[in-house]
Amino acid sequence: MILLITGGLGYIGSHVCVELLKSGHDIIIIDNLSNSSIHVLENIKKIVWLRKDLEDVHHHNNVIFYNGDVRDEAILSDIFKEHSIDAVLHFAGLKSVSESLDTPIEYYDVNISGGINLLNVMKKEKVKTIVFSSSAVVYGDSKSLPIKESTPLGDIKNPYGYSKLFFEQILKNIYQSDPEWKVAILRYFNPVGAHPSGRIGENPNGIPNNLMPLITQVVMGKLDEVKVFGSDYPTIDGTGVRDYIHVVDLAIGHVAILNKLFSIPVTQVFVVNLGSGIGYSVLQMIKAYEKIVGRDIPYSITKRREGDIAESWTSIDYANEFLGWRVERNLHQICLDTWNYEIKKLKKND
User: Fold this and answer.
1) Catalytic positions, please?
2) CA torsion 197→203→209→211, rounded to 10°?
3) Is 221 left (phi over 0), alpha (psi -120 to 50) or beta?
4) pLDDT tens-digit profile of 221-265?
5) Fewest CB within 10 A of the end CB: N or C in the chain?
6) Strand-pair category, 279-281 with 241-246
C-alpha cells in the first residue's frame, strides 16, 4: 500500500515509518520539522535497508518526503494528486500537556484545524481510511483502573487532552455520516524508549516535558536533577504512576491495526488502547534507569503540576485479542534502548 504519514519524522511517527517499510509498504511523509529533524529521514532509511552509505539508500524510491504543514491545504492537495494514497496515518500535532495550558489557541489550531484540513482534502480525493494518533489523556482522571476502551471519557484537565477528544469525535461523526470511511483511533499511554539500532529516538527541543528524556538529560549532565512533580499522590510511593510502552511495540501496533482495517468489514470506528498494561511510578522509573547507567540519578520533589493526574494504566486485553498484538519489550529494554540512543548520539556529536 501507499501510505501518507503526517508528522512522520517525529518520535512516534519515525518508528512507525520503520515498521511500515519493513512490512513492505510505500510511505509518503509530510512533516514541518517543528519538533523533528530532516536527519531522521536518512536514519529511517538506514535502519530499514541496513545501509551505511547514503548513496545506496537513495536508490530506494519508496520513501518520499514533503516539508510541509497539515494546515496547508495546497501542499496536501498536491500530495494526494501526485500519489495514489491508500490510507493516512495522522501523527502531526502538538503534544505537551503543560505547554497546552500556556498556549491553548495554538494547540487547537494545530491539532484540530490541521486535522480538519487533512480530512477535507482526504474527502475531496476520496481517500477514506485513517489511523489517528490519540492519547490516554482523553480518559481524564479516571477512577477506574485498569483503563479499558469502554472506560468513560472526560474530566480532562488540559487543552491538549481536549484537542485529542474533539478530533476523535470529529472522526466518529464523519464515519456516522459516511460509513465508507475506515477509521481507527489508537489511544497511547506513555511511549518511551528508542529504536534498538540507536539511530532514532526521542529528541525534544529545549527542556523535555516527558519523564524519560528528562531523566536522560540529567544523566548526561545537561540538567542538575529530575524534578518530581508531587509526592503525595495515593500511589505506591506518592509519585505519579503511568503506563510506559516501548515505542517499537507501539509502532508495531500501527501495522496491526492497518492490516485489520484492510482485511475485515469495517462496521464501526475502531478504538484501541496501546500500553504495556503495567503502571510504574516516577521513582520506579528513575531507579530502573539507575540500574542501566550504574549510578544514582539526582532528583528533587516539588509541588504537583497543574493538569497532572495520580495514575493511569491500561488493560491491553482488547489489543491482544483484536489485533493479535503483544508487548514484547519490558522496562529494562526501555531503559537500555533509551541509553543506547543517547550514547550513540553523543558519539556522533563528538
Assistant:
1) 160
2) 20
3) left
4) 999 999 999 999 999 999 999 999 999 999 999 999 999 999 999
5) C
6) antiparallel
Among 48, 294, 4, 30, residue whose Cα is nearest residue 195: 48
Query: Could you state, in order of their start, the residue ranges of all structural domains in the chain?
Result: 2-349
C-alpha cell belonging to residue 172 = 466518529
Helix, strand, coil shares of the chain as percentages rounded to 5? 45, 20, 40
What are 302's three cell numbers? Answer: 516539588
The pTM of the full predicted model, rounded to 2 decimals, is: 0.94
CATH superfamily of 2-349: NAD(P)-binding Rossmann-like Domain (3.40.50.720)
CA atoms of 44 and 17, how far apart (whole Å): 7
The answer to whether 331 and 280 have CB atoms below 8 angstroms apart is yes
Query: In the structure, how many helices (H) and strands (E) does the chain have?
Result: 13, 13
pLDDT in tens, 109-164: 999 999 999 999 999 999 999 999 999 999 988 889 999 999 999 888 899 999 99
**How far is residue 153's CA from residue 172's CA, in Å, rounded to a whole number?**
14
Strands (E) located in the chain: 2-6, 26-31, 63-67, 87-90, 129-135, 182-188, 190-192, 226-229, 241-246, 270-274, 279-281, 299-302, 311-312
Contacts of 230 (CB under 8 A, 6+ apart): 238, 239, 240, 301, 302, 303, 304, 305, 308
CB-based contacts of 216, cutoff 8 Å, min separation 6? 289, 338, 339, 342
The dihedral built from the CA positions of residue 231, 308, 195 and 247, taken in this order, carries a sign that is positive
CA-wise closest residue to 305 among 210, 174, 190: 210
CA-wise closest residue to 6 among 102, 142, 127, 124 = 127
